[in-house]
Write a structure and sequence with these properties.
Length: about 375
C-alpha cells in the first residue's frame, strides 16, 4: 500500500497597494502606485508563493473560483491544476483579470511542487541556460533628462549592457530625451517602448528617428491589438530594429494570432499574465517552433527562474517598479551579477523566496 500523495490543502491571497518612489508615466498611462497580489498555496507541510500585478478583484477570483478547483488536487501535478483552472473561468472571462489570477495560483503551485521535491524551480522545469540575461527598464516619461540619464547610466555601470526608456507621451521632448539617454550610456544598447502611443504613419516616422540614436528595439510602436500595424512596422522599419510586443497576452490563442500575423521580430510574454509558469512554457514552445526569440516581461524573481528553461530566450525586462516591490516583499531576491545576468540560486528549493510579512503589512488593503 502506497502513501497518499500530498494535496493542495489551502489557497490564500492578499492584496497590497505600494506607492511608487516618484510619479511615473509612459506613452499612454500615468500611475503613482502598483497593486501586488500575493498568493500562497499550502500542502504537504510546505507553502508555495505566487503573485501577479493586478487589481484587487484578482484575489477574489483566487480564493473563490480557483481555490474551489485546486484544493484537494495532487500538489505534485501543477500543470493538471492549471488545465483545470482554464475552463473554470469561462463565464468570468478568460483574458485579463482571470488570467492574472490563474497565473498567480499556477506560480504558487509550481513553487509548492518544487519545494516538496526539495529542488530549485529552474532545475525542476528543465533549465537549458545557467542564467537569464536582463535589460534595465524604467526611463519613464515623467523623469526629467537628468533623472533619466542617471537611471540608465547606473544600470550600465552595474554591468547591464542594455537599457530601455519610455517614449511617445510628448514627442516634442523625445529627441532631447533620446540625446540625454545616449549621452548617459555611451555605446550600450538602447531600447525604447512606446506603449502603443503612435498611429501607424507616426510610428514609421519615429522608427526612423530612433534609428539615428542606434535604437535596436522598438516595443509596441502601435497598439498591440493592431497586428497589421505591427507587421507593417516590422516589414518597413529600419534595418536592425526589432519590433516587439506581447506583454498583454493572456492566453495561447493571442500569441498564436500575433505570430501568424508576422507582427513581431521578438515575442514578449509576462509570466504573471499569460497563465503562469505552465502558460509561459507553452508560449515558449510556440516560439521554439518558429526559431523566434522570446523576451520575458517583468516580475524578475519568477521570470529569472523560468527564463532558464526557455530555449529561444532573448532577455528579461528588469523593470524598476517590480525590482523595488519584490525586494520589499521577499527575502532571497536575485540581483544581476556584473555579467548582466540573473543567476537562480540552485541551493534553495522552489523560487527560493521568503515573504517579508512584517514589511508588507503596512501596504495591505485586502
Amino acid at each position: 500500500m502506497t502513501d497518499a500523495p500530498p494535496t493542495v490543502e489551502r489557497i490564500e491571497a492578499a492584496v497590497y497597494v505600494i506607492p511608487t518612489d516618484a510619479p511615473e508615466s509612459d506613452g499612454t498611462l500615468e500611475w503613482d502606485s502598483t497593486t501586488f497580489v500575493l498568493v500562497t498555496a499550502h500542502g504537504g507541510g510546505r507553502t508555495g508563493i505566487g503573485y501577479t500585478y493586478a487589481g484587487p478583484a484578482a484575489a477574489q477570483v483566487v480564493t473563490g473560483k480557483l481555490a474551489g478547483v485546486v484544493v484537494g488536487r495532487d500538489a505534485r501535478t501543477p500543470v493538471a491544476s492549471w488545465a483545470a483552472m482554464l475552463p473554470a473561468v469561462r463565464n468570468l472571462g478568460k483574458p485579463g483579470l482571470a488570467a492574472e489570477a490563474i497565473s498567480a495560483v499556477d506560480i504558487a503551485l509550481w513553487d509548492l511542487h518544487t519545494r516538496l521535491l526539495d529542488l530549485p524551480l529552474a532545475v525542476a522545469i528543465g533549465a537549458v541556460h545557467e542564467a537569464t540575461p536582463v535589460y534595465g527598464s524604467g526611463g519613464f516619461t515623467s523623469y526629467d533628462n537628468a533623472t533619466l540619464g542617471a537611471q540608465l547610466a547606473d544600470w550600465v555601470e552595474a554591468g547591464i549592457p542594455q537599457v530601455k526608456m519610455k517614449v511617445g507621451r510628448d514627442p516634442d521632448a523625445d529627441l532631447g530625451r533620446l540625446r540625454a539617454a545616449r549621452d548617459a550610456i555611451g555605446d550600450a544598447r538602447l531600447l525604447v517602448d512606446a506603449n502603443g502611443a503612435y498611429q501607424r504613419k507616426e510610428a514609421t516616422l519615429w522608427a526612423q528617428r530612433f534609428a539615428e540614436f542606434d535604437v535596436r528595439w522598438l516595443e509596441e510602436p502601435v497598439s498591440s491589438d493592431d497586428l497589421a500595424g505591427l507587421a507593417l512596422l516590422r516589414d518597413r522599419g529600419p534595418a536592425g530594429m526589432d519590433i516587439a510586443a506581447g506583454e498583454y497576452g493572456y492566453d495561447l490563442p493571442y500569441f498564436q494570432r500575433m505570430l501568424d500575423a508576422g507582427a513581431v521580430d521578438c515575442l514578449q510574454a509576462d509570466v504573471t499574465r499569460c497563465g503562469g509558469i505552465s502558460g509561459l512554457l507553452r508560449v515558449a514552445a510556440l516560439c521554439d517552433a518558429r526559431s523566434m526569440d522570446l523576451s520575458l516581461h517583468c516580475a524578475p524573481q519568477v521570470s529569472a527562474q523560468v527564463g532558464t528553461a526557455v530555449w529561444h530566450l532573448r532577455h528579461l525586462e528588469y523593470f524598476h517598479d517590480h525590482v523595488r516591490i519584490e525586494g520589499m516583499a521577499f527575502d532571497g531576491v536575485l540581483a544581476p551579477e556584473p555579467d548582466g545576468l540573473l543567476h537562480p540560486d540552485r541551493s534553495r528549493p522552489g523560487l527560493g523566496l521568503t515573504v517579508k510579512q512584517v514589511d508588507l503589512e503596512r501596504y495591505r488593503v485586502a
